[in-house]
Amino acid sequence: MDVGRSTEGRPIQLGLGYNAAQFTLLVVVNALVGGMLGQERTVLPLLGEQEFGLRAYTAGLSFILVFGLAKAATNYFAGTLSDRFGRKPVLVAGWVVAVPVPLLLIWAPSWSWVLAANVLLGVSQGLTWSTTVVMKIDLVGPARRGFAMGLNEAAGYGAVAVTALATGYLAEAYGLRPAPFLLGLAFAALGLGLSAVFVRETHGHARLEAATHVARADGRHDHLHDQLTNREVFLQTSFRERALSSASQGGLVNNLNDGLAWGLFPILFASAGLSVGRIGVLAALYPAVWGVGQLVTGALSDRWGRKWMIAGGMWLQAIALAMIANGDDFAVWAVAAVALGAGTALVYPTLLAAIGDVAHPAWRARAVGTYRLWRDGGFAVGALVAGVVADVLGVRAAVWTVAALTAASGLVVALRMYETHPGPR
């Protein structure tokens, strides 16, 4: 194990076992981050339609559009800020921004308040989720990166699922406001307290790994040295480097279909006569399988490699979306939601792990930020594509369109991406 010393004089050592306490705390913190997102999954599309009278799908999906744009931009800057100022200050700042979100949703007299809340939610998610990802990568070192990302994303999306389910039942029992959003207020207070008081800085772990970094034996990354400018990191991650750019487009399309699921699935299910409670079950089932599945898939990618898990996961998502577009009852949609969650579980932690495999520790946080810029930009693209197609051709046509895009994305990974982690080290 590699050992160093922090600026406070504490010994620094890479590895999950040595850093188990801080790693576990960060898992809890990211679950709270996911809960902030989950408070909207069931309720907000119905709120827009029933309380604010939004009939055009494009208008109804505007909250996802502004969320995606805010989160994508913040993701990019979160990596740069965490390299410059440290990880913990960025994490705490994200929680400060989160506190007003549930209050705005509870008190919103117009849809513009909801949009403002989702701008803040996007900024908060970009700062908090990006930073917990980077901090876990810092702590575990290279050997168990996929497992670490699986735990991180499982915690976040498991909490999305639980909160989506809980808010569905709360909305059915007590109305769409304010009860469902009181959960978000509790999550924000707890997340801010834990991050400010108990989370420790991990930037020293990244510096230690950079100092002991060993290049790949095949010379694949010889051109990716440790001294890259922000512009160079952006270009390599977005376009030039085959694995990094393949992961970036895969992440964008993955969240494009998640934006569709978030914004249009509750409306599709409601049009079939499902109750708010049953819509909440379906809204929770997909991220629940996604979340729990990542406990397995992240670790498997450390043993089997990344490429074909990503491609296969994208194709499974495409099949699930086709099932949803073609279905018309709860049972079919439940099976499809499970398949969609399983496909996403194969993809989500594996994409992050692939970025960590390729990016040099000196600029890894910036690479993660760039990847997450593209990935969460998928929310905005999904809101636009799904909204326009749904307005012109109907909701089911929008689902079919996104299914085709997801299948094509898997093909890009299959043809362009190389294996970034060929088996255990």
TrEMBL record:
Membrane recorded as keyword: yes
GO terms under cellular component: plasma membrane
CDD domains assigned to the protein according to its UniProt record, in alphabetical order: MFS_MdtG_SLC18_like
GO molecular function, one term: transmembrane transporter activity
Bilayer topology annotation: Multi-pass membrane protein
Domain of life of the organism encoding this protein: Bacteria
Keywords tagged on the record: Cell membrane, Membrane, Transmembrane, Transmembrane helix, Transport
UniProt xrefs under InterPro entries: MFS (IPR011701), MFS_dom (IPR020846), MFS_trans_sf (IPR036259), MFS_Transporters (IPR050171), Sugar_transporter_CS (IPR005829)
Main location: membrane
Residue span(s) of domain Major facilitator superfamily (MFS) profile: 19-421
Record localization: Cell membrane
Transmembrane segments: 12-37, 57-78, 90-107, 113-134, 154-175, 181-199, 259-277, 283-301, 308-325, 331-352, 373-393, 399-418
Name of this protein: Major facilitator superfamily MFS_1
Lineage: Bacteria, Bacillati, Actinomycetota, Actinomycetes, Mycobacteriales
